[in-house]
Amino acid sequence: MYQVASRNLGPGAVFQNKRQYISPPPGGEPHLYNVMKEPMELKELKAQVAELQAQAAFQDDTIAALDEAIAAQQQEILLLRRQVELLKQRQDEIAAGQEEGGADAAAEKPPHY
Question: pTM of the entire structure?
Fold first, then answer.
């Protein structure tokens, strides 16, 4: 049947990342055998799956909160940009008014003279 590949590697047996493939039967697929660990107990696997599910749920909540924060910041940025545009318009109008009235204002004497 199956033979574990050893120092004398037979056809189809390969070492890769500290894992050893079992030589496949003729025409069959190789099966992975982890030589570093013993097979995991079903309870251990269930605990790992539960932990991964908890981590995924936490990450989903975090992503949703970050998405809301980004949306609120984007709205604030749009409002601030509009306010800057209005201030720039007002400043340009004031500067234009001073340029037009600047020559006339220099010729006029203040009312106390």
Answer: 0.47
Q: For residues 14 and 27, what is the distance between their CA atoms, to the nearest angstrom?
A: 16
Q: pLDDT digit string (tens) for 3-24?
A: 444 444 445 544 444 455 455 5
Structure tokens at 72: 């609120």
Answer whether 19's CB lies under 8 Å from 35's CB: yes
- Residue 60, CB-side half-sphere exposure with 13 Å CA sphere: 6
Please report, for the chain, the start and end positions of each structural domain, with discontinuous segments joined by +: 10-37
Residue 34 φ/ψ, nearest 5 degrees: -85, 110
Q: Give the count of beta carbons closer than 10 Å to the beta carbon of residue 64.
A: 10
Nearest to 30 by CA among 9, 56, 57, 58: 9
Cβ count near 91 (within 10 Å)? 10
